[in-house]
Specification:
Largest sheet: 5 strands, parallel
Strand content: 15-25%
Number of helices: 21
Shape: elongated
Oligomer: single chain
Distance between the termini: 24 Å
Radius of gyration: 25 Å
């Protein structure tokens, strides 16, 4: 099955395989985003050695599993390695053998999947790996060593930002993001779903662009049928996936869920201070947890340049987690289906509107391209006035002296701009100008899933973008 998208990532992996030196590649990103599939499809049958960490396994379990992989690669030693230094010493001998498999360009490709799981508490894994790489990887020229994992914050702290033996050792890092709408459309076309762009967008608003989730969809059924089958029905495969997702990407801590629940009830975000003050956790735990959530891409952090002290604002921007917190946290009966929530017009409309805003935030590059400002430096954020008199879905603050105030509308038909709505837009603009005291030009942009009906009351709207612009 052909890999969809990922052209830049594949190009980077292929470049490393052709290089004249050893490469230490770090591939990371959230659970279910397709990291292992990317590596497997790129390097195919050329692995000299590969091993996968055992989830929740202790040190002995990890070493026992690793011993099996060594045996498969030609290691004759029968016993389990006493520690990781011995394990890597035996790996070095395996890789030094004449019969060791090499790639087309003569590289020995080694793949450690779920790398963080190897590093159990009080084990010497990281020290042994660092010693192995500093002794072998930096001397030999024929290694391509890929470390891969879903525990994003752990990898950033312990590998990419390590100040010890792995300092500055990673030669290439690939942060694998969820599919864009364009990539999702390519996937759906390849699997002959036959869904419209609107259906694809709504699928993305629920499942968040994760290829593994898409692989579970039945292309012969509707989106609603698939949501019920995968999320709402008793024993549905993804019913408890949010908990697994957080635990796989982050360490187990109640703080993450507490913060996410808090942010899920503040659709336009809240300042970091406001969030902390509303929770019963220590400052240190809170700060570390927020940092992890931001690094994993679950929370968007932006600087409020126009409030006293320039506070940091936090906003939940993960579609799948938003869906979970909106519809599943309070428990559902065995007979509950997605249609039940769609009939609750207020709750459903509220979720759908905000999910579309998140979709736009994820596709800010497409929006900038449609506006003709792809080369301009920008800062993006949702904005709420100090007295909660006005809120703006998306502000694109540009280095060229303009701020685009974006109004995002997800409606079933073309959006009609009434005189009252136009007055509200101008009021928002004026309140923004007054509170921020900005001297930049303010330009109103409407991003409407189904375009705008007619030209009435659109005099002050600079640009209108549609769902199609997000697919570019």
């Amino acid at each position: 099955m052909a890999i969809i998208g990922r052209k830049e990532e594949i190009r980077e992996l292929e470049k490393c395989e052709k290089s004249k030196k050893s490469e230490l590649i770090c591939v990371y990103g959230r659970r279910r985003v397709g990291k292992t599939y990317l590596v497997e499809q790129t390097y195919a049958d050329y692995f000299a050695f590969r091993a996968t960490g055992v989830e929740s396994g202790n040190t002995r379990t990890q070493l026992k599993s690793f011993k099996q992989r060594l045996a498969e690669a030609g290691d004759k030693e029968k016993r389990i390695p006493a520690n990781w230094f011995e394990a890597f010493s035996r790996l070095e001998k395996v890789l030094s053998a004449e019969e060791t498999k090499r790639s087309v360009h003569g590289k020995k490709i080694v793949f450690f999947d779920e790398f963080p799981w190897f590093a159990t508490a009080r084990s010497d894994f990281l020290e042994a790996f660092g010693e192995f790489w500093n002794r072998c990887g930096t001397v030999n020229r024929d290694y391509v060593f890929i470390i891969c994992g879903s525990a994003t914050s752990w990898i950033i702290k312990n590998v990419l930002e390590d100040s010890g033996s792995l300092y500055d050792r990673v030669t290439s890092q690939i942060f694998l993001r969820p599919f864009s709408l364009k990539e999702t459309e390519m996937y759906m076309q390849d699997r002959e779903f036959g869904w419209s762009r609107r259906q694809i967008a709504e699928c993305q608003m629920v499942f968040g662009g994760l290829p593994y989730f898409f692989s579970l969809l039945n292309p012969d059924e509707s989106l609603n049928w698939n949501i019920d089958a995968l999320i709402f029905k008793p024993h549905a495969l993804l019913r408890h996936e949010s908990k697994k997702l957080l635990e796989a990407t982050l360490k187990k801590s109640a703080a993450y869920n507490t913060i996410m629940e808090c942010l899920s009830s503040h659709l336009y975000g809240m300042t970091k201070a406001e969030c902390f003050e509303s929770l019963d956790i220590s400052q240190g735990t809170f700060s570390r947890a927020v940092d992890d959530l931001v690094k994993c891409g679950y929370v968007h952090e932006s600087v409020d340049n126009y409030s006293k002290g320039h506070p940091l604002r936090l906003q939940l921007v993960d579609p799948f987690l938003l869906f979970h917190y909106k519809f599943l946290t309070n428990g559902i009966s065995e007979n509950t289906r997605f249609e039940n929530f769609k009939s609750d017009t207020g709750k459903y409309t509220n979720w759908r509107g905000h999910a579309f805003e998140i979709l736009c935030m994820y596709h800010i590059d497409s929006i900038k391209n449609a506006l003709g400002i792809s080369g301009v430096q920008t800062n993006e954020y949702a904005w709420v006035s100090e007295k909660n008199e006005a809120q703006i879905d998306l502000c694109i603050e540009r280095d060229d002296g303009i701020i685009n105030l974006c109004e995002e509308k997800y409606t079933d038909t073309a959006f009609s701009v009434s005189p009252e709505y136009e007055k509200n837009l101008l009021k928002k603009r004026d309140i923004y100008r007054k509170e921020t005291k900005t001297d930049k030009a303010l330009k109103i942009v409407v991003i409407s899933a189904e375009d705008i009906a007619g030209k009435a009351n659109t005099e002050h709207i600079t640009r209108v973008l549609t769902l199609d612009d997000l697919f570019i």
